[in-house]
Write a structure and sequence with these properties.
26% of the residues lie in helices and 27% in strands. It contains 6 helices and 11 strands. An 11-stranded mixed beta sheet has the order 3-2-1-4-5-6-7-8-11-9-10, with helices on both faces. Helix 3 links the parallel strand 4 and strand 5. 33% of the residues are buried. Keywords: Ion transport, Transport. This is TrkA family potassium uptake protein. It comes from Streptomyces tamarix.
């Protein structure tokens, strides 16, 4: 898979390193000469250019990329790169970094963004996830379909603890992606039984999040009454 990353700072280089280790082809693009540190990620392609310019993106052959990652420290730049990648070059998957949470509302399909990653929001969500049981925590937002990646740790008093996945009446527009049980990552097959303490990861429409949280967290005595 060919991936272009706009922004060769610490974030861009770290992403590039991970992708290269996984066998992908990576191009790093940055307009600052000081950011071009080929020796730090020697396996990547490097391009000294302004990723907001069509001529630069032509030189980067963006039309051959399967994924574009807008990872600069400037939200305006990331939005422009995302929009150009999607509308001018038809890149199938565009991921954009959100630096200022106040700008998160802009990172939508209208700007060509498929997945928006807000580092401050993600760090906050991970803190919540570490200390919360029974509360739905939003980890990641997907622009297409207004869906989010959400997590909930199943509390002991949940009405569905001990229930098979296939027997639960899940809300519409939600999908159980995986179950994390201790050090194990489980595929949520219909016969898998949910246990108290399971970390459940869902892709869910935002409008269904409250309904999903109610289903997972309801106490047995509440459900019976």
């Amino acid at each position: 898979m060919r991936v272009a990353i706009a922004g060769a700072g610490a974030v861009g280089r770290s992403i590039a390193g991970e992708l290269l280790e996984n066998g992908h082809e990576v191009l790093l693009v940055d307009k600052a000469p000081t950011a071009i540190s080929v020796e730090r990620v020697p396996q990547a392609e490097w391009l000294l250019a302004d990723a907001c310019e069509i001529t630069s993106l032509d030189e980067a052959a963006l039309q051959r990329c399967h994924v574009v990652i807008a990872a600069t420290g400037d939200d305006k730049v990331n939005l422009v790169v995302s929009l150009l990648a999607k509308t001018e070059y038809g890149v199938p998957r565009v991921v954009a970094r959100v630096n200022n949470p106040k700008n998160e509302w802009l990172f939508t399909e209208a700007w060509g963004v498929d997945v928006a990653v807000s580092t401050p929001r993600l760090m906050s969500a991970l803190v919540e996830e570490a200390v919360s049981v029974g509360d739905l925590v939003r980890l990641l937002r997907f622009s297409h379909g207004d869906a989010n990646l959400v997590e909930l740790t199943l509390p002991p008093e949940s009405a569905i603890a001990g229930t098979r996945v296939g027997d639960v009446a899940w809300p519409q527009d939600t999908s159980l992606v995986t179950i994390i049980r201790g050090s194990r990552v489980l595929t949520p097959g219909a016969e898998e039984t949910l246990e108290a303490g399971d970390e459940l990861l869902f892709v869910a429409a935002q409008a269904r999040e409250e309904q999903l949280e109610d289903l997972l967290s309801v106490r047995r005595e509440d459900a019976a009454g």
